[in-house]
């Protein structure tokens, strides 16, 4: 089953050889590719922000994608794709004809992130994508308030306010990448990131107490990995206090390993530096 719409998306073949087929697709609002099966793994790079509506034969899923965002999918995907945005969008699709050892990595990525995969461990991903946006200077006060609320439970553990509680968020929204997640019109969680030359540093992940324990922290870490890949980087890094054992365990569960412990200062205590290579 496919969409009944008949406005065709327009393919523009840019390269077709033994290794790759590269196609630019232009979609008017409401345009569809038509039902198709992917014989090869493929990458998509969005040239505009927009909403892709995916029909997999039984279910319809809307995925909000940002300009420049990329994702990959394994061979065997069958679907119809519609531009559900109120404006035209375009993306470049790169099909990999000789996937070879790529195949395993694409399968892993797909399992972690695919909104099309029924095995996705983040059923919230579509809602999260829809609620995510980049913070602006006008968000600084809300970012500070949520972070202070999220970290307040650690004050008795540390005997002081954790570093994120006292950070300068006017500076953070200006100099770092801060993405905020709104759910039901409310700021639910945020992630502050700092891209470096060869890795992305996660400065702060904070989930509002009302939303804790529901997978939003993990989803924001997955979002950070997507951003890292889209920047062409292959390593995630973060650090946390050695006393925030719950956080260290969470990061270990999602693939981070401890690189070293370091006495930050007598006041701030010992930090645990962790990293995760991206496949
Ligand atoms: Ni497709």
Describe the protein.
The protein is an alpha+beta fold. The protein folds into 2 domains: 10-100, Jelly Rolls (Sandwich); 114-277, Gcn5-related N-acetyltransferase (GNAT) (Aminopeptidase), CATH 3.40.630. It contains 7 helices and 16 strands. The protein has helices at 102-113, 125-131, 140-151, 155-158, 169-175, 216-230, 245-253; strands at residues 10-16, 20-27, 36-37, 42-46, 50-55, 60-65, 70-73, 78-83, 89-96, 132-134, 177-183, 186-195, 200-207, 235-241, 257-265, 269-277. The chain has a 7-stranded mixed sheet, sandwiched between helices. A 5-stranded antiparallel sheet has the order 1-2-9-4-7. Strand 13 (200-207), helix 6 and strand 14 form a beta-alpha-beta unit. It is elongated, with a radius of gyration of 20 Å. The two termini are 34 Å apart. Bound molecules: nickel (II) ion. Residues 33, 36, 38, 79, 81 line the site of nickel (II) ion. The site of nickel (II) ion has 5 residues, from strand 8.
Number of helix segments? Answer: 7
Bound molecules: nickel (II) ion
Low-confidence stretches: 101-123
Quick one: how many beta strands? 16
N to C succession of SSEs: EEEEEEEEEHHEHHHEEEHEHEE
Rounded mean pLDDT score: 84
Terminal residue distance: 34 Å
Strand order of the largest sheet: 10-11-12-13-14-16-15
CATH architectural group of the largest domain: 3-Layer(aba) Sandwich
CATH superfamily of the largest domain: Gcn5-related N-acetyltransferase (GNAT)
Q: What percent of the residues sit in helical stretches (DSSP H or I)? A: 10-25%
CATH class of the largest domain: Alpha Beta
Total domains, how many?
A: 2
- Give the CA-based shape: elongated
Q: Which fold name is given in CATH as the topology of the largest domain?
A: Aminopeptidase
Computed Rg: 20 Å
């Amino acid at each position: 089953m496919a969409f009944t719409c008949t406005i065709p998306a327009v393919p523009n073949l840019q390269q077709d050889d033994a290794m790759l087929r590269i196609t630019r697709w232009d979609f008017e609002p409401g345009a569809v590719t038509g039902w198709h099966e992917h014989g090869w793994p493929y990458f998509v790079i969005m040239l505009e922000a927009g909403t892709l509506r995916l029909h997999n034969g039984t279910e319809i899923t809307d995925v909000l994608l940002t300009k420049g965002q990329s994702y990959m999918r394994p061979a065997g995907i069958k679907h119809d794709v519609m531009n559900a945005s109120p404006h035209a969008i375009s993306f470049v699709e790169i099909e990999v004809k000789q996937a070879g050892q790529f195949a395993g990595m694409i399968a892993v990525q797909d399992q972690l992130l695919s909104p099309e995969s029924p095995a996705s461990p983040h059923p919230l991903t579509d809602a999260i994508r829809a609620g995510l946006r980049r913070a602006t200077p006008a968000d600084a006060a809300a970012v500070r308030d949520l972070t202070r609320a999220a970290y307040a439970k650690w004050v008795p553990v540390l005997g002081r306010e954790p570093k994120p509680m006292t950070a300068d968020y006017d500076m953070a929204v200006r100099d770092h990448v801060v993405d905020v997640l709104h759910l039901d019109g409310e700021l639910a969680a945020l992630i502050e990131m700092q891209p470096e030359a060869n890795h992305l540093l996660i400065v702060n992940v904070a989930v509002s107490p009302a939303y804790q324990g529901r997978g939003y922290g993990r989803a924001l870490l997955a979002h950070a990995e997507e951003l890292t890949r889209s920047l062409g980087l292959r390593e995630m890094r973060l650090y946390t206090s050695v006393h925030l054992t719950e956080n260290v365990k969470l990061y270990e569960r999602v693939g981070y390993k401890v690189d070293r412990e370091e006495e930050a200062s007598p006041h701030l205590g010992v930090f645990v530096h962790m990293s995760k290579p991206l496949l």
